[in-house]
Design goal:
Length: about 140
């Protein structure tokens, strides 16, 4: 995410577009340069392994529609799958426990959730969200 109030690259692009449409207004000039700068900085650090999760266009799309995960993996428990691609970090334990507390046990149940639903899970902060996005991306690339 970009440093400008946690906005995504897509949100920054949208703001830039709106300001460009209204460039005649002088009060937008300093805002425009700040947003363009934030956009440029963020594009240097964009990581496709997690950006798919934070893209506002994907918020209401189930993750099964965003990732290609094999049916074999979808039938396994979340705990088994996460730990199979995990490096054993404490964040991975938090991810598994938070998802389990939400009543989901199998990967198919997790993949039926949208990124927005994941973001709303209790005790599932940005660090856990980024880590889950990375683990799922890794899982997709390892099992396709």
């Amino acid at each position: 995410m970009a440093n400008l109030f946690g906005l995504s690259i897509d949100e920054l692009d949208y703001l830039i577009h709106l300001i460009e449409k209204n460039q005649k207004r002088s009060e937008y000039s300093s805002l425009y340069s700040k947003i363009k700068g934030a956009r440029a900085r963020e594009s240097l650090h964009e990581d496709s392994s997690i950006s798919w999760f934070f893209n506002p266009r994907n918020f209401s799309t189930p993750m099964s529609g965003l990732l290609r995960i094999s049916n074999e993996v979808k039938e396994r428990t979340i705990r088994d799958v996460i730990y199979s691609v995990s490096d054993g970090s404490s964040v991975d334990n938090r991810i598994v426990n938070s998802i389990h507390r939400s009543g989901r046990t199998y990967m198919q149940e997790l993949l039926d959730m949208t990124p927005n639903e994941i973001m709303l899970l209790r005790n599932f902060g940005v660090g856990s969200q980024k880590r889950l996005a990375l683990l799922l991306w890794t899982l997709q690339n390892n099992h396709t």
